[in-house]
Amino acid sequence: MPPAETPDILLIRQTRPDVAGRLAERFRLHRLEEAPDREAFLDAVGPRIRGLAVGAMCPIDARLFDRLPQLEIVASFGVGYDTIDAGEAHRRGIVVTHTPDVLSDEVADLALGLLLATLRQIPQADRYLRAGRWREGSFPLTTSLRERRVGILGLGRIGRAIAQRLEGFGVRIAYHGRTPQADVAYTYHDSLLGLAQAVDTLIVAAPGGPGTNGIVDAGVLAALGADGVVINIARGSVIDEAALIAALQAGTILGAGLDVFANEPQVPQALIDLDRTVLLPHVGSGSHHTRAAMGRLLTDNLFSWFDGKGPVTPVPETPWKGQR
Ligand code: NAP
To answer: Which residues belong to any copy of the D-isomer specific 2-hydroxyacid dehydrogenase NAD-binding domain (predicted)?
Structure first.
């Protein structure tokens, strides 16, 4: 039985046994999903909760904060936190942490896999063989990564890891973000449309949220041209999904490789029906190795905070002013 001063932590959509196991060594844990009556449960334990351990893409907003008057920290699993109202947390003095860096290589690896799978139609070729069609004739020729000009939307931690890998493939690399980066040799475009006009392959690696909602729109897609290919390993909301479907159906662009969707886990049937799409169920960081590292970083944040040492990896909006 933990001592009375043991902080109370609420787990929301956080089901990893290693995370819960480590947290249980130090904290008193409560699991929202196990409560038969969520409202009654929050009435009972909400006033005692000082920390949250939440799963990826978990909605955390003012309504929940209202139920947790002693809340000090939200420790989120994943680097993207567009479903957490970090601005509202800031106003209430609540720290928000995420798990950057430990997943960048894994997501970049997946992005390159998705890029090659989309260009060379690897899943389609696999389906062709399994259907016994090879005996009838060779698989049709595909487009290629050779001589492609690749644009990265969002040259952050993951975007840079993608660019480093692309260097090995010998393609030209350009990028767009709100600010040019002094320490890279890739060509900077100050507008997304300008980037799309200069490249034929767009890799989306910018965060979701109001600032990026639907910025890959019909005009950007059209600018990629008829050989255009879009890869999205960031958030589905960054692409205007209806415009993407229309562009693919009309042949305005050639193909798309998508790990993320606007309304996950719902995927538009139109995307599934198209032959020139490669679709993945949001598996960018989904390896045992990387998910375990993300879990360790989440728990490190809670341990560090309640040890009085501040958060390890706070999000930029968080009220924590300490420098680590
Ligand atoms: P990051 O280091 O913060 O990089 C984000 C980049 O996006 C920055 O270079 C930023 O540059 C740019 N950006 C931000 N707002 C923008 C805007 N309005 N217009 C254009 N560019 C903008 O984040 P990260 O660690 O690389 O992660 C990127 C995203 O990947 C996450 O937010 C998450 O949604 C997604 N992700 C997906 C998976 C998956 O499983 N598929 C896994 C992990 C992460 P400026 O500040 O200069 O604009």
So the answer is: 112-284
Q: Which atom of ligand 1 is nearest to the CA of 284?
A: 40
- Two structure tokens written together for 228: 């255009």
User: 301 CA distance to ligand 1 centroid (A)?
Assistant: 21
Q: Which residue, judged by its Cα, is nearest atom 10 of ligand 1? A: 154
- Distance from first CA to last CA of the chain, Å, rounded? 33
Report the CATH number of the 104-279 domain.
3.40.50.720
Residue ranges covered by each domain of the chain: 8-101+288-307, 104-279
Q: Which CATH class is domain 8-101+288-307?
A: alpha beta
Q: What's the CA-to-centroid distance between 22 and ligand 1, angstroms? A: 29
* Cα distance between residue 13 and residue 30, in whole Å: 12
Render each residue's pLDDT in the chain as its tens digit; 324 residues: 455 589 999 999 999 999 999 999 999 999 999 999 999 999 999 999 999 999 999 999 999 999 999 999 999 999 999 999 999 999 999 999 999 999 999 999 999 999 999 999 999 999 999 999 999 999 999 999 999 999 999 999 999 999 999 999 999 999 999 999 999 999 999 999 999 999 999 999 999 999 999 999 999 999 999 999 999 999 999 999 999 999 999 999 999 999 999 999 999 999 999 999 999 999 999 999 999 999 999 999 999 999 999 999 999 998 776 544
Q: What is the atom index within ligand 1 of the atom nearest the CA of 181?
A: 47
Cβ distance 145 to 115 under 8 Å? yes
**Contacts for 42 with CB less than 8 Å, ≥ 6 apart:** 32, 67, 68
